[in-house]
Amino acid sequence: MERKVVIFDHPLIQHKLSILRNVETSTKDFRELVNEISMLMMFEATRDLPMETVKVETPCGIAECKQLAGRKLAFVPILRAGLGMVDGCLKMVPSARVGHIGLYRDETTHTPVEYYCKLPKDIDKRDVYVVDPMLATGGSAVDAISQIKLRNPRKICFMCMIAAPEGLEVLKKAHPDVDIYCAALDEKLNEDCYIIPGLGDAGDRIFGTK
Ligand code: PRP
Ligand code: URA
């Protein structure tokens, strides 16, 4: 099956994203919006999960229903900012496991530096959703996914709020088998590799560190 690259045009996602981008939005609202958008994106990103038919006894008879066919999921946020997306994802799939990959961008080279990696033991039996609000140069996402691939997961998807065209191309080329979901595709990167117009530093805005 051909891999998916989805840029969301849903009105609820676009509306919430417009508030998220606003420099006046408070830390509290920013956090809530990141969770809400993640929830809506996860709803769509799980569209192809396999189903099975089951019979359910209702108070009035037997209903033939569809249920998820036991597919196991894992969410892997890229620390720190990816943490902001986890609660929203778990609201959609509460039974998912959560792994963590710690990466930060070196301020001068803009390349990712890994400082932590803890993944579920049975990740080889799971579909993995790597989550991070920002896809800028693509370095962090590419490295995180390469790390996860060493553990042979069944499938990998990447989910972000805002992507730069440069980062999207880098990720598509490095990992042609990974489905990609973005709430918005922005214009470009600036000389500091920040997304323009973007929303600023996602980690700082989620955790109120600036
Ligand atoms: C941000 C963001 C991504 C990365 C994207 O994290 O959350 O992980 O930058 O940039 P890239 O596509 O150019 O690699 P940052 O390094 O600022 O760390 P933080 O989440 O700890 O704030
Ligand atoms: N990381 C962020 O948090 N924002 C950007 O615009 C680029 C990288």
TrEMBL record:
Pfam families reported in the protein's UniProt record: UPRTase (PF14681)
Single Gene Ontology BP annotation: uracil salvage
Domain Phosphoribosyltransferase residues, every copy: 8-209
UniProt: uracil binding residues: 195, 200-202
Cofactor details (free text): Binds 1 Mg(2+) ion per subunit. The magnesium is bound as Mg-PRPP.
Pathway: Pyrimidine metabolism; UMP biosynthesis via salvage pathway; UMP from uracil: step 1/1
Regulation affecting activity: Allosterically activated by GTP.
GO MF annotation terms: GTP binding; magnesium ion binding; uracil phosphoribosyltransferase activity
Highest taxon above the source species: Bacteria
Parts of the chain that traverse the membrane: none
Catalytically driven reaction(s): UMP + diphosphate = 5-phospho-alpha-D-ribose 1-diphosphate + uracil
CDD domains: PRTases_typeI
Requisite cofactors: Mg(2+)
Statement: the UniProt record of this protein carries the keyword Chloroplast: no
Role of this protein: Catalyzes the conversion of uracil and 5-phospho-alpha-D-ribose 1-diphosphate (PRPP) to UMP and diphosphate.
Similarity annotation: Belongs to the UPRTase family.
The protein's name in its UniProt record: Uracil phosphoribosyltransferase
Lineage, highest ranks first: Bacteria, Bacillati, Bacillota, Clostridia, Eubacteriales
Gene: upp
